[in-house]
Amino acid sequence: MITLNEKETSIQLSEKEETQIIIQYWIRILKIKLGWIHEFDKLVVNYVMIFLLFVLYLFIVIINNHYLTQATTVFMLDTFRSSSKLLKTFSGHTDCVYSIDCFTLDCDQFICSGSDDKTVRVWDVENNKQIQSFNGHSSSVSCVKFSPYHCRNYRRNVICSASHDKTIRFWDIKDNQQWKICKEHTKGVCGIEFSQFNRGRYLCSASDDKTIRLWDIETYKSLHVFNGHEYAVWCIAFSSLQSYNNKNKNNSIGVIGGNGYTICSGSSDRTIRVWDIETTKQLIVFKGHRDAVVSVKYGSNELGINGGTNTILSGSQDNNVCLWDIRSKKQTQVFKGHRNGINIVEYSSFVMDNNDIGDSSNIICSGSSDNTIRFWDIRSNKELHVIKENNGIHCLTFLQLKKEKKGKCKDDRDCDISLCYCLSNGTIHTWG
Asked: In residue terms, where are the WD repeats (predicted)?
């Protein structure tokens, strides 16, 4: 006697067998009508390869377009020095301007500035007028930076300022008020810089108290104190990429993550020091300047700098500009010509045809208390151009101004490069 379960099993087996028979039948029919069906696997592989090659082609086209676009952001120094002139003057500060930063809001361009008159000011570039003034510091303002973190994460336009009153303050441009204040340094704060990674979440600060502090802007708390300099720390910079290959990964304490990111600092002890953010260890000490190092900048791959992020540019009160190689841990260039202390150094977007090497060279520039801004060929070590003023140059930066007053810049081709710099008499100039 067959049970119900045995009947169900018998029926299920029959259905399975029937399905297999049907499949086998259609396979035979297809083999007869389409004799190449046994090559089906190869056919699939061929189609996949064609698809992958098409994707690779699109990728190459996109990359080429990217670099073509990047190339349009490079400007010839010959054009600049032959046709440039003073474009705008911003007046309002009553004492020396130590720091400026440029930023764009809704396609409109602005400058923020910090001065010995204890104020932080915001300027509308196109309309050539001051739109804000913040008066909370009790001593000179040494450095100002527009905060990319607040803009990207909170859609708020915030300026960060450092002062010799020992504080770092955050100002909301729209609400015209102080937003936050950080008080951890025991002496004046000389310089600040936002990280170029993690959406600008981290801030480093340099101080007269000989220390460098790393801050989390999300919590406004100090994460770590870097000790090592023997005298006041004047300047600080974040690496944009993982420029140093840290082999000692076992020492990682995980301050903010991102093994390989570094900061560099310049001090009155005449040294430039490179620090690993992840391990908080000092990696390199560069010695060569004969006076205080007051400005340091990392190189950039985007500008096509020879050595890219493995180079550091420095300016000192010994009147010299120097270039350093992180990999070899050596000084590679010294640029001599200034007759007084250097206050600021900067990589530029300019290039120049160099007949000596049969290629184009990148240009760096420096501002000094000798009242001049000088442009240098980074490869030939030659001085290429000088802008002369009646007062000392304390800070400078490059910005791209719209060619026409009305309308938006669709891309960098619709803009001209301009130089923005500050004088010891309190005025700000744009030159282009």
From this structure: 90-133, 134-181, 182-225, 259-285, 286-334, 360-386
Q: Is the pLDDT of residue 232 over 70?
A: yes
pTM of the model: 0.77
Q: Are 265 and 286 in contact (CB under 8 A)?
A: no
